[in-house]
Write a structure and sequence with these properties.
By secondary structure, the protein is mainly α. The protein has one domain. The chain contains four helices and no strands.
Length: 66
Amino acid sequence: MSTTETDDLWRGTSDTGSAIRARARTTPAQRLEWLEESLLLAQAAGALARDRARRQRQAEEWASPR
């Protein structure tokens, strides 16, 4: 696998090459810690509640007879 292909596996929307390589070097435990911190931040910012409400509205729209 070429470097470009490897980098593509780790690419986000605005990642630089160095950010991609740094993330690729993290351990699974470090990735889980980062994920937990990200989810806690999203929860504190209200993003999770907004997303749950959006999904609930969608589910209700799909379930309602037309």
